Amino acid sequence: MKDAFGAPQSLLVLGGTSEIGLATARRLIARRTRTVWLAGRPSPALAAAADSLRALGADVHTVPFDALDTESHEERLGKIFTEGAIDMVLMAFGVLGDQARDESDPVAAVRVAQTNYTGAVSAGLVCAASLQAQGHGSLVVLSSVAGERARRADFIYGSSKAGLDAFAQGLGDALHGTGVHVMVVRPGFVRSKMTAGLAEAPLATTPEAVASAIELGLRRRSETVWVPGALRMVMAAVRHVPRPLFRRLPV
Questions:
Q1: Which residues are CB-neighbours of 207 under 8 A, at least 6 positions away?
Q2: What is the dihedral of CA 234, 109, 161, 151, to 10 degrees?
Q3: What angle do the packed helices 207-220 and 19-31 form, to 10 degrees?
Q4: How far apart are CA 165 and CA 148, in angstroms?
Q5: Is it true that the peptide bond before 44 is cis, omega within 30 degrees of 0?
Q6: Where are any strands of DSSP class E within 115-223?
Q7: How far apart are CA 155 and CA 197, in angstroms?
Q8: What does the longest C-alpha to C-alpha distance in the chain come to?
Q9: Residues 37, 65, 81, 157: which is the catalytic one?
Q10: Are 140 and 183 in contact (CB under 8 A)?
Q11: Is residue 220 exposed (0-12), middle (13-18) or buried (19+ Cβ within 10 Å)?
């Protein structure tokens, strides 16, 4: 169960090598978290991530997880909950894709959509059902400001995040009053391996800053968290920019 500050004792990270996921795990371990499950494709990187968290004093387990293998989600993720209650699930997996390439390669574009949206719908519903069955817990979903309005530069990725964001909001409404808390996190440009080599956007942030915002959101039982917070007002304005003008903006 969570303590008075919202820190979970147990954590499941879907996307076990995610920099944001691991930064969040480190921050929560420093607070109170003692058991961590890292779900991801078996790899040296996943093993190294588990070892790094064990060095902080946590009991860490890894479990095979592939967002695209939706038929395995119920069995593999459901099994984790049979090992003991999970106080928090962090959905941190996703791919950025390559917009220029993906526009001319529909198969690659579909892979982005299936990973970021279809895989998240499947995993999210499985975890939500398990959290509801145990009667408590938080489901934290990493969305993106890219989902707020489609941009020419990344509309394939952005559309997948828009779908994920809408799904997570609706799931939160469906679970209201059940003891399960759903929190949607909307970071801006995050300096990470995934964005290495890309031109940095204004109000760029870091995995550690996102992790800090997640922890604060858990304490407040927030439903939506923007990182950095200033993006809330920026995107409120961007949503209402007339489309002809929006096309000319350097976004």
A1: 19, 20, 22, 23, 190, 191, 192
A2: 10
A3: 50
A4: 9
A5: no
A6: 137-142, 180-187
A7: 19
A8: 54
A9: 157
A10: yes
A11: exposed
Asked if residue 189 has pLDDT above 80, the reply is no
- Look at the alpha carbons of 113, 118, 123, 125 in this order and tell me if their dihedral is positive or negative: positive
Side by side, which strands form the sheet with 224-227? 59-64, 35-40, 10-14, 88-91, 137-142, 180-187, 224-227
If you ran DSSP here, which 8-state letter would residue 199 be given? P
pLDDT tens sequence across 226-240: 998 888 988 888 888
Q: What is the dihedral of CA 15, 142, 157, 70, to 10 degrees?
A: 50
Identify the pLDDT of residue 251.
64
244 burial type by CB count under 10 A (0-12 exposed, 13-18 middle, 19+ buried): exposed
117 is annotated as an active-site residue: no
Helices (H) and strands (E) in the chain, counts: 10, 7
3-state secondary structure 173-192: HHHCCCCEEEEEEEECCECC
- Alpha-carbon radius of gyration of the chain: 18
Structure tokens at 5: 């500050």
Enter the tokens of residue 73. 């989600």
What distance in Å separates the CA atoms of residue 94 and residue 144, rounded to the nearest whole number? 11
Report the predicted TM-score, pTM, of the whole model to 2 decimal places. 0.92
- pLDDT, tens digit, 9 for 90 and up, residues 135-185: 999 999 999 998 988 888 899 999 999 999 999 999 999 999 999 999 999
| Backbone torsions φ then ψ of 246, nearest 5 degrees | -60, -35
Give the confidence band of 249 by pLDDT, cuts at 50, 70, 90: confident
